[in-house]
Every structure is written in C-alpha cells, then in structure tokens.
C-alpha cells in the first residue's frame, strides 16, 4: 500500500507523467472496450457516404460510408499493439546486445559497436518499406521488421550504462567471488542499468506508432486490421470536402504518440532531476 | 586525426557493403516473380518469359547476378529499370534535384530557427516563452508528417486557396525565368513548412538542453569567478561547446535527406525520390530498387563522414579517440 | 590585520518550495597571510560558503544575509561592477573537479589569455603569454602546455594549470575548494608542498576547503570545523587537533587514520546527517552526539572563545545562554 502511495506521489510530482498517464489510461480503456464504445460496426458500409459529423456518426463517415468514429476506436488496438510490442522486442534485443558489449568490453565491444554503427547508418524506413512490400504486410511482419531495425538506440544506451557499472565495486566484488559473466550480466548489470532504458523504450513506442501509421498511409499496412494511417490514406481523396475523415484519426495518432513522449520524458525527469539540492 | 578519418571511412564502406548485400539478397530471394510483373500479365507465354529472363540476366544463378551487378556498379552502371527500360542512374538523376531542393531548404530552415529559438529559450529558462516553446515542441513531435501535410493542404490550399496543393510547378502556366523560380517557391511553401514543423523541435530541444548543460559546467564557474562578462562567456565559450550536439543531429538529418521525406513528398505529389521509391517498391523494379538503395546508402555515409570530420575539428577530444 | 571578516552569514537555498539552510550564523575572521582549513562532511556547507564569497551561487535560488568584509569592503553589498574588479584580481579560486574547470574545446593558453585580459585589457599577447609561461614555470609545468587542450593533460597537470590560472593576477586571497581531493597521494603531496612554497613567496592568504583532516593538519595554520551549516569549532590547528573540545571534532578526527602512526581504531560517526530543510531546535549535532545532555536538544549553544582565537559552540564548554 505504501508503495502504491509512493508511486502515485511521484507521478503527481511530474506534470508530464500525470498528463501522459491520464491520456494513456483512456487510450487503453478505449482499446480494450472498443466493441462497446464503437457506435457502429467499423466495417459496415452505411448508405450515407461522406456524411458530416452528427449525433449518428460522431466523426462522420468515409467515402464508402463507414463510421469514422468506430474505425478510430478500433484503430487504437492496432496502434497500441504495434507500438508496445515493437518497443518491447527492440529493447530486449538492444539491452542484451548493449549489455554484452559494454560489460565484456575489448574485442566483443569493438565488433558490436561497429555493427551498431552500421545499423545506425541504414535508411531504416526505406528498408522496412522494401521488406514489407516484398514479404507481405501482415501485422507480424510489420512488428518483426520494425523491431529488428530499431534496437540500436537502446543498445547504445545500455552499452554506456554497462561500461559505467562495470567499474563499480559491487560488480568487481561479484567477479572476485567468482560469479559467472552471464550471471553478473543478468543479475547485476541489466537490473541496475535498466531504468533509463525503460524511459527510452517508452519513447520508442511513439516512433513505432508513427512508423506504423506511415506504412499504413502508404498502403503497406496489414489489410486485415483497422489502422489510423489507413483511414487517413483512404480519406485523402475526399480531403477538400470531407475534412473529418483525415482529421480525427490524425488527432488520435497525435494524442497517442504524445502520451508516450510525455511519460518517457516524465520518467527521465524523475531519474535525473536537474537539481538535487547542493553541498 | 588521420586515424580517426580512416576509421570513419572504413565504417562507411562497411555499411555500404552490408546494406547493399542485405538488399540485394532480400530482393533476389523474395517470393513472387518479377517476370510476371514485367510481362504485365499473370500468365505470360514461354517465349516472352525466355526473352525477358535473358534480357535482364535473371537466368543466371544469384551469385553470378551479384557479381555482374558489382562489376557494373564499379563501371558506374546501375543497370536498366525493368519498368521504363531507362538507365537507373538517369531516373534517379531526374528526381534527385527536386528532393534535395526540398529537404535542404527544410533542414536549413529548421536548424537555423530551431537553434536560435533553443538558445534564446535556454537563456530565458523558466520564462513563459521557454515553457510555451517546450510544450509546443512536445505536440509538434507527436504529429505524423504526412498528416500535417494533409491538414496544411486542407487549410491553405482547399479552404483559403492561397497556395498550390501539389507538385513543383504550375503545369498549365509555362513560366520562364524569374516567374518560374517564384512559382517553385510558391509550391515549396507548404511542404517546407511541414518539414520545418516536424524537424524544428528536435533542433530547438538540442540547442536548449546543450546550452543549459554547458552553462552548468564547472568551467563557466571559473570564468564567472574570474569576472568575465556574461555576454563574452556566452558568445565565446558556451556557444562553441553547446553547438556540438546540434552538428551531430544535423548530420543525421542530412544523411537521410533522400529517403527521409518520401512520405511528405508523396502527400504533396512532389516530383522527387519519394514517388520513385514507392513505384520501385510496388512494381518490384529490382534494378531501380537496388540502385536507389545504393544511392541512399552512399549519400548517408558520405554525409556522416563529412560531418564527423567537422565534428572533430570543433571538438578536439574526438580526435584522440 | 584582518583580511576577510565574516559576520553572521546565513545562506538559504530555495528549492521546490523547500528552504534549505546551507550555512547558519557563520562568523569567522581570517588574518592576512593566514592559511585556514575548513573541514566537514559533504553537505556541511563548506563549499557553499566558499562560493558565496564572490557571489557565485545561483542568484534565483539563494538568499544570503550577513557580511562578508574583504579588506574593508562588504562584498555582499557592492554592485556587480565593483565586485568584478575584485574577482580574480584580489580573490581567486581553485575549484574542485579541476578536470572540468576549463573549457574542453579551447586551448589552455587561449583560455588563460582571455582570463588575464579581463583585468589587463591593454596587455599585449606577447606580454600575456610571457606572464602565463612564467606562472607555468612556477607550478612546474612545461611551456608546451600552453598549446594543449585540457583533455591532453593528466589530473595532476590540470591541477597545476588551475593553480597557475588562479595566480594570474597574484591575488591576495586564494580559495582552494577540494583542490587536491581527486589526485593520487603522491601528486597531492607534491602539489600541497608547491602551494605552501608559493604562499611564502607571494604572501598569499589561503582558505582550504576539504573533507580531509590530514590535508589541513599538514598545510594549514588554522582550522574551522563545519557541520550541517554550523561552524562548531575553530582555532589554531595545533590547539584544535591536539585537544578537540567539540564532540564532533573528536569524532571527525577519530574517523581518520592517525597521522602520528599510532594504530587507533577507525570509527565512523553513528547516526545520520540532519535534514536541513526542517526547522531545527537545540544543537544541530545533538542527535548524533555521544555526550549530549538534555539542554542540547532544547537550546542552541553559544560560541565561546576559550583562548587565543579558539572558539567552540558546545554546551559542554559553556555557552548555555543563547535562545
């Protein structure tokens, strides 16, 4: 109970965290409860084509008569799923690779650093485009490709964490009593260096959501799910007269991405406050 | 210093090789048959298949295709596009200028304005201006560029009709000389604004935080204790130290100058690389794809190496590493 | 002659709605050509005090009251321009973490040149360089250092550069803030020796801020012991360190290995450091003091002079009458 109170107090002490978490909770509720919140079947083709927002169609309808509000509600699932899973996989890859490079140092570090440098110089979005276009645009493919191309940031962060932790006394003593490298890596290095990674991964969720939206906008999203980017792409043609089709899903993207940015930023502030009092 | 440059160039070449092999094999081992796409029908007759296969060298084994391709690249020949039957280098060359014009304008504008605002906000840290800018930048960062482009088109082109919606020139009016330049500028306003809003926050934030960071360094205390005037401390010592992260970021933006704005180009129907990339991908135009990819990789590496060298000139600590 | 006279100095940090009392009612008199060591744990306010002398604390979050009288002028009351004339010319610092006390992207010579010209605007480059090289010679640095960057030097060399930098205008008061703490023992010893020689030669007055009691006993004439913003005991090193009157001074000395070579048991001080943001009643050290009496928790002890500049603030040595 005390812990919960402590965490709540911390959250309230940072404006960014408070706003970010509030938006996120709403989004998650929307995603979970989408069948109940959506006012219409998102796939149903109503007779009213490009109908203005009204009490019947809260965000209006698109060119085929689908209810935009219901599509936006269902789209939350796709965005959150892609964002969270991609960030999760890529931070695991990044943490492991960075942790190994930083902790072991020497030749291993040199080789891994070079690989990281190479990956940093890859035109990631272009690569994702090619792979998705060629190997098919199922949600799984999208997630895997994005995760495999976005771990470098985490790896660099974890590497520098591991390098500084490596020199600390408790690691040295663990080495002295003969704990194995793998054990030290998992028991000491990663747990002690993980907090900045968590903040960083939260921000990575944002970029993954933006990338997925871009892919769907280009028509390379999973055709079997509802995605905000795709709604925008479909609404593009009707833009001059039916502004609502593009506007609402875009706003949904902005809010979602913003919430993760704010949470990540808020965590960073809590982790390294600029002012800790003084000697 | 020389070692440092040599090391960077090695990494660059490695990257080009790696990414090139990656795409080449990704594409060649892809499911789906390009012949069908080339023939324009699901069931091409055997003669046509044979003809096309021989013409594009698809009958050779993949390692031989790879070898041939490398040989040709070294001669400066990127091959022919399957779709238009024109040299890949010519296709790229036609689109390159438009893309570079657009991105370079956007990047330069974002760097200058973003850095300037960031430095100003840092000097007035905690002020209303500072807090307003910081909040605005969060929101700007969360906006997908392609959507922002659409909204700008909606407002300025559709609603008010003051700016053109798409393209690079007015195709109906055959402008010449200065009128043509003005026409292009008019067409650039919306896409460049989109790029600006998307990229400016990054430079704002970097400039702001690195100025604040530098201001809290111990050497600033030394200079203050020595009685140096605040303006001199700022102009001579803070700025030079604080500019380094901006240069790193600038190099990243410039590196992705060709591929990074594809989405925005497509929204504005800008006749640049964006459309070419999408066409190449959608139509499985392998020579064009690998050519574009090679082009992008090389440009990324060249820009990175150049900025690394500039970086080393500004920050003496780098030279030693 | 009194060079620096501090009367009832109070420094408060205002951070996140809290008021942190970093220095409380500090009074200290430093004579010309004295060398005074100020010792205390981290958080004792010794660095804050040192920084306040030239108003180097961030103005938005600090509140300073009291007098800091340097050679007849109250440094807290004069305007910025007059303070600027005193900075570095009369009072100079060698900061802790000297590694970062110079800009990493400018050559050392250039930075020293700039700092020299703050007060000697008309000096030619040639004269300035000569002056700097002369100082390098004084602190045993080679001429080549002039054209190097800070990261190209070792910790000891950087520290020597910092000392040379502080001596640019031959100041009267030199403040060393943990200046040798980061160095290895041998280099630290060498540099301390050199500082003492320079002091003789240049007739410097020195304040040495450190948590290392042995440095003070080796290099200073006088010592002032600070704890949680309070000055608990001050006087000549031979008095204070041989017969410490304040229980905290005793604990502090016990927590360091004996200099005379006797093998005493090393002891930490039990209890934890007080929270400086809450209002405190009684003696600040009472919670951790082995000899505390009832009165210690009720009344703040008054500072009494025992003899010859030896001052103690403790109920055990009198000083009950302070509300």
UniProtKB/TrEMBL annotation, chain A:
InterPro entries: BP-dependent_transpt_permease, MetI-like, MetI-like_sf, OppC_N. Belongs to the binding-protein-dependent transport system permease family. Residues 80-264 form the ABC transmembrane type-1 domain. This is ABC transporter permease. It is found in: Cell membrane. Its main location: membrane. It comes from the Bacteria. GO terms for cellular component: plasma membrane. Keywords: Cell membrane, Membrane, Transmembrane, Transmembrane helix, Transport. One of its GO terms (biological process) is transmembrane transport. It comes from Tissierella pigra. The keyword Cell membrane applies. The chain crosses the membrane at residues 17-38, 82-104, 116-135, 141-158, 243-263. Pfam families: BPD_transp_1, OppC_N. It is a multi-pass membrane protein.
TrEMBL record, chain B:
PROSITE patterns: ABC_TM1. GO terms for cellular component: plasma membrane. It is found in: Cell membrane. InterPro entries: BPD_transp_1_N, MetI-like, MetI-like_sf. Its main location: membrane. Keywords: Cell membrane, Membrane, Transmembrane, Transmembrane helix, Transport. Pfam families: BPD_transp_1, BPD_transp_1_N. Residues 96-311 form the ABC transmembrane type-1 domain. The chain crosses the membrane at residues 12-30, 96-120, 132-157, 250-271, 291-314. It is a multi-pass membrane protein. It comes from the Bacteria. GO terms for biological process: transmembrane transport. CDD domains: TM_PBP2. Belongs to the binding-protein-dependent transport system permease family. This is ABC transporter permease. It comes from Tissierella pigra.
UniProtKB/TrEMBL annotation, chain C:
Keywords: ATP-binding, Cell inner membrane, Cell membrane, Membrane, Nucleotide-binding, Translocase, Transport. SUPFAM superfamilies: P-loop containing nucleoside triphosphate hydrolases (SSF52540). Its main location: membrane. It is a peripheral membrane protein. Residues 6-253 form the ABC transporter domain. GO terms for biological process: peptide transport. One of its GO terms (molecular function) is ATP binding. It comes from the Bacteria. Coiled coil: none annotated. Pfam families: ABC_tran, oligo_HPY. InterPro entries: AAA+_ATPase, ABC_Ni/Peptide_Import, ABC_transporter-like_ATP-bd, ABC_transporter-like_CS, Oligopep_ABC_C, P-loop_NTPase. GO terms for cellular component: plasma membrane. It is found in: Cell membrane. NCBIfam families: oligo_HPY. Belongs to the ABC transporter superfamily. This is ABC transporter ATP-binding protein.
């Amino acid at each position: 109970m005390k812990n919960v109170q402590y965490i709540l107090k911390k959250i309230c002490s940072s404006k960014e965290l408070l706003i970010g978490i509030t938006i996120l909770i709403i989004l998650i509720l929307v995603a979970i409860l989408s069948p109940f919140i959506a006012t219409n079947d998102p796939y149903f083709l109503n007779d009213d084509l490009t109908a203005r927002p009204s009490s019947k169609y809260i965000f209006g309808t698109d060119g085929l008569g689908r209810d935009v509000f219901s599509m936006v509600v269902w789209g939350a699932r796709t965005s959150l799923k892609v964002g969270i899973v991609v960030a999760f996989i890529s931070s695991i890859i990044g943490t492991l690779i960075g942790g190994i490079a930083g902790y072991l140092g020497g030749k291993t570090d040199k080789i891994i650093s070079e690989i990281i440098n190479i990956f940093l110089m890859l035109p990631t979005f272009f690569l994702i485009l090619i792979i998705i276009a060629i190997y098919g645009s199922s949600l799984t493919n999208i997630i895997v490709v994005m995760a495999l191309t976005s771990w470098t940031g985490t790896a660099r962060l974890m590497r520098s964490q591991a390098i500084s932790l490596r020199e600390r006394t408790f690691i040295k003593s663990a080495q002295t009593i003969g704990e194995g490298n793998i054990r030290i890596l998992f028991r000491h290095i990663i747990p002690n260096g993980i907090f900045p990674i968590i903040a960083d991964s939260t921000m990575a969720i944002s970029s993954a959501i933006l990338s997925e939206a871009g892919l769907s906008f280009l028509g390379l999203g999973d055709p079997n799910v509802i995605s905000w980017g795709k709604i925008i792409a479909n609404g593009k043609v009707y833009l001059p007269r039916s502004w609502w089709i593009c506007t609402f899903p875009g706003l949904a993207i902005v809010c979602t991405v913003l919430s993760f940015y704010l949470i990540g930023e808020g965590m960073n502030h809590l982790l390294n406050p600029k002012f800790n009092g003084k000697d | 210093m020389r070692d440092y440059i040599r090391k960077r160039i090695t990494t660059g070449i490695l990257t080009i090789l790696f990414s090139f092999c990656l795409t080449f094999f990704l594409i060649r081992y892809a499911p789906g048959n390009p012949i069908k796409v080339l023939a324009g029908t699901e069931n091409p007759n055997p003669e046509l298949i044979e003809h096309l296969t021989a013409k594009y060298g698809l009958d050779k084994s993949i390692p031989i295709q790879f070898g041939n391709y490398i040989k040709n690249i070294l001669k400066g020949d990127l091959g022919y596009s399957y779709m238009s039957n024109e040299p890949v280098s010519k296709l790229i060359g036609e689109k390159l200028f438009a893309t570079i014009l657009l991105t370079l304008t956007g990047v330069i504008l974002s760097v200058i304005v973003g850095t300037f605002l960031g430095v100003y906000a840092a000097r007035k840290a905690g002020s209303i201006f500072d807090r307003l800018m910081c909040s605005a930048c969060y929101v700007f960062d969360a906006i997908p560029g392609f959507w922002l482009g659409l909204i700008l088109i909606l407002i300025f082109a559709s609603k008010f009709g003051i700016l053109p919606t798409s393209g690079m020139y007015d195709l109906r009016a055959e402008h010449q000389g200065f009128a043509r330049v003005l026409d292009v500028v008019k067409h650039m306003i919306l896409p460049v604004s989109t790029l600006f809003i998307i990229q400016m926050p990054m430079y704002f934030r970097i400039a702001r935080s690195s100025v604040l960071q530098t201001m809290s360094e111990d050497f600033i205390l030394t200079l203050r204790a020595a009685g140096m005037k605040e303006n001199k401390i700022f102009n001579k010592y803070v700025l030079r130290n604080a500019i380094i992260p901006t240069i790193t970021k600038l190099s990243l933006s410039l590196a992705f100058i060709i591929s990074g704005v594809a989405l925005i180009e497509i929204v504005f129907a800008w006749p640049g690389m964006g459309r070419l990339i999408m066409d190449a991908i959608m139509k499985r135009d392998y020579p064009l794809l690998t050519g574009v990819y090679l082009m992008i990789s090389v440009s990324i590496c060249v820009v990175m190496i150049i900025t690394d060298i500039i970086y080393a000139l500004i920050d003496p600590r780098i030279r030693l590493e | 002659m009194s060079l620096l006279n501090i009367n009832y100095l109070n420094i408060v940090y205002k951070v996140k709605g809290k008021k942190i009392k970093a220095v409380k009612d500090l009074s200290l008199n430093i004579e010309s050509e004295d060398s005074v060591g100020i010792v205390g744990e981290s958080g004792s306010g010794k660095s804050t005090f040192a920084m306040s002398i030239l108003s180097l604390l961030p103005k938005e979050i600090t509140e300073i009251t009291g007098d800091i009288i340097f050679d007849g002028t109250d440094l807290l009351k004069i305007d910025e321009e007059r303070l600027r004339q005193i900075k570095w010319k009369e009072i100079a610092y060698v900061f802790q973490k000297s590694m970062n006390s110079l800009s990493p992207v400018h050559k050392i010579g250039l930075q020293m040149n700039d700092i020299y010209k703050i007060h000697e605007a008309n000096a030619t480059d040639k004269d300035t360089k000569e002056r700097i090289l002369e100082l390098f010679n004084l602190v045993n640095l080679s001429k080549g250092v002039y054209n190097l960057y800070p990261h190209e030097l070792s910790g000891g060399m950087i520290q020597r550069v910092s000392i040379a930098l502080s001596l640019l205008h031959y100041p009267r008061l030199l403040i060393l803030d943990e200046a040798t703490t980061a160095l290895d023992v041998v280099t630290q010893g060498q540099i301390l020796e050199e500082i003492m020689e320079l002091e003789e030669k240049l007739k410097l007055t020195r304040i040495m801020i450190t948590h290392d009691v042995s440095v003070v006993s080796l290099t200073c004439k006088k010592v002032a012991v600070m704890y949680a913003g309070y000055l608990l005991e001050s006087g000549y090193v031979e008095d204070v360190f041989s017969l410490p009157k304040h229980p905290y001074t005793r604990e502090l000395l016990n927590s360091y290995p004996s200099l005379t070579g006797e093998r005493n048991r090393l002891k930490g001080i039990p209890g934890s450091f007080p929270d400086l943001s809450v209002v405190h009643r009684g003696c600040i050290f009472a919670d951790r003091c082995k000899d505390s009496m009832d009165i210690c928790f009720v009344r703040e002890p008054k500072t009494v002079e025992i003899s010859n500049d030896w001052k103690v603030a403790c109920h055990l040595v009198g000083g009950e009458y302070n509300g």
